């Protein structure tokens, strides 16, 4: 059985930390939650756990420890996944931490070349596929006219005392998303303690991303009770899509 020497230990640990740090540099540059230190520490931890299993001399231990590392990173990744209105943030960060742990395991196993190749693959995904994904998001949907205009209605119910503030935020959010309001109507609810606002907008291009941005922004306001939108040619359905 191969005995783990101090030189081997240091080389593998340094490689694992360096690979994690390279991944973290890109994350830090984009100001993500898990940056340089976090990815380097995740890779270092994964490397140290596997190195320990080799140091104790159990031939089957490294593979078992590697499987435990995968499970442990799952809990760590769950801590960076956050709900943001109707969407979820942190999935990409959690996946990146998982990859940092993977390159650490490769480095600890002595597969230094594979660890470096894995690091390069992660960087390529972030640097190349990110702009490619944005181009796909901007591409018009199949069978749709990118220059066509769609009319949609945003329905909002808020506390009566917050009506002025919420109305201003609604118009500001619509303008910030590049939407052109064509009408705004307000009325008191039956019980009189709330106000119902209905804004009609004209949208050119994809409808859902622009409206979801508005809904996500306004749903964070404490005075908002109900918020949803629908297309003019669809029946009004407060549950599709909706934010309570």
TrEMBL record:
Alphabetized PANTHER family for the sequence: PROTEIN MGTC
Keywords, sorted A to Z: Cell membrane, Membrane, Transmembrane, Transmembrane helix
MgtC/SapB/SrpB/YhiD N-terminal domain mapped to chain residues: 13-133
Cellular component per GO, a single term: plasma membrane
Protein name: MgtC/SapB family protein
Segments passing through the bilayer: 6-24, 36-53, 65-83, 90-108, 114-132
Subcellular location, principal: membrane
């Amino acid at each position: 059985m191969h005995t783990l020497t101090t030189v081997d230990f240091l080389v593998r640990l340094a490689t694992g930390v360096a690979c994690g740090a390279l991944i973290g540099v890109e994350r830090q540059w984009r100001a993500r939650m898990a940056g340089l230190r976090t990815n380097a520490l995740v890779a270092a931890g994964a490397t140290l756990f596997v190195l320990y299993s080799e140091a104790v001399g159990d031939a089957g231990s490294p593979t078992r420890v590697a499987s435990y590392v995968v499970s442990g990173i799952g809990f760590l990744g769950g801590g960076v996944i956050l709900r943001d209105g109707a969407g979820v943030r942190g999935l990409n960060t959690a996946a990146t931490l998982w990859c940092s742990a993977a390159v650490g395991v490769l480095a600890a196993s002595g597969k230094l070349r594979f660890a470096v190749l894995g690091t390069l693959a992660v960087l390529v995904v972030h640097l190349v596929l990110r702009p490619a994904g944005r181009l796909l998001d901007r591409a018009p949907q199949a069978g749709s006219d990118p220059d066509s205009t769609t009319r949609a209605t945003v329905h909002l119910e808020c506390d009566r005392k917050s009506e002025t503030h919420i109305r201003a935020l609604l118009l500001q959010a619509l303008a910030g998303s590049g939407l052109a309001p064509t009408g705004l109507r307000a009325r008191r609810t039956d019980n009189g303690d709330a106000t119902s606002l209905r804004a009609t907008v004209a949208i050119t291009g994809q409808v859902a991303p622009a409206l979801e941005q508005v809904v996500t922004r306004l749903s964070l306001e404490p005075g908002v009770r109900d918020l949803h939108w629908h297309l003019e040619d669809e029946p009004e359905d407060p549950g599709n899509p909706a934010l309570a």
